[in-house]
Design goal:
The protein is an alpha+beta fold and 134 residues long. It has a single domain, classed as 2,3-Dihydroxybiphenyl 1,2-Dioxygenase, domain 1 (Roll), CATH 3.10.180.10. It is built from three helices and eight strands; from the N terminus they run βαβαβββαβββ. Strands 2-3-4-1-5-8-7-6 form an eight-stranded mixed beta sheet. A hairpin with a 2-residue loop joins strand 3 and strand 4. The longest helix is centred in the first third of the chain and has 11 residues.
Amino acid sequence: MQFDDMISMLSVKDIHKSLDFYQGALGFERLSPDEALADWKWALIRSGKVKLMLNQNKGPVHPEGEHDFNVAFYFYPDDVIALHEKLSKAGHPVTKLIVTFYGMKEFSLKDPDGHFLSFGKDTDEPPTESTETD
């Protein structure tokens, strides 16, 4: 098992204020479409090789169903299904493997220090029923 990429996600209070800061003060460019910003209050930004996700109010759900993180780490494994199975069998408290409304097959867990980790892979599968309104 290997990972193809990892992007940090910051939970922010005001997505537009945060974008103004990262774009204006630090020179980041927004890669995500206008629809993601308007509908999901989410943005993917980049400066050089560095990518960062900004998420207002709501992010992936950890095992307790809460959104209490300030920073989440989003990993892109080469096989998200096998990784979910491996962690599950080893007794780690992973969430269900779901397909999100934004086209990712993903799951999450917290590491031993409480850091929020999400793992996902792009998919064309339809969203898991319960995620359409989340």
